[in-house]
Amino acid sequence: xxxxxxxxxxxxxxxxxxxxxxxxxxxxxxxxxxxxxxxxxxxxxxxxxxxxxxxxxxxxxxxxxxxxxxxxxxxxxxxxxxxxxxxxxxxxxxxxxxxxxxxxxxxxxxxxxxxxxxxxxxxxxxxxxxxxxxxxxxxxxxxxxxxxxxxxxxxxxxxxxxxxxxxxxxxxxxxxx
Length: 177
Description:
By secondary structure, this protein is an alpha+beta fold. It has four helices and twelve strands. The longest helix is centred in the middle third of the chain and has 10 residues, at 95-104. It is globular.
């Protein structure tokens, strides 16, 4: 299986790597797992993993355009990142807002206030970067714990071949078993 991305070390620039644990809770239940992110200023590759490190989804983002891949079911969805994050976690954030939240701890307070979302932010004493982020209201609770953070040289390049995958509705990709 060919890689869907590479790091171009010859291009000027850097990319970030983050490892997060997530907990999401709503009236339908609890979900937890890990998120592995590699991103630069233009693109991102994100893996959503189970607690046992099985890949739930692969997400490729360029600006606010997203490609969500369910590798087990061989299905994919293309669309706006805001639509995806709203469908999965019921929050309204662009990819840039999400990236700045986990990278720098910059919280879009006015936007979250519109949805009556409260937040708690705990920063690392040494780096000043976010360590734990919690967004919650009466209906949902999302907790992100940043476990590992690295900056490396090179930018992300995508190599896509969707011929073996079936284009599907966002709900079919997220809920496929």
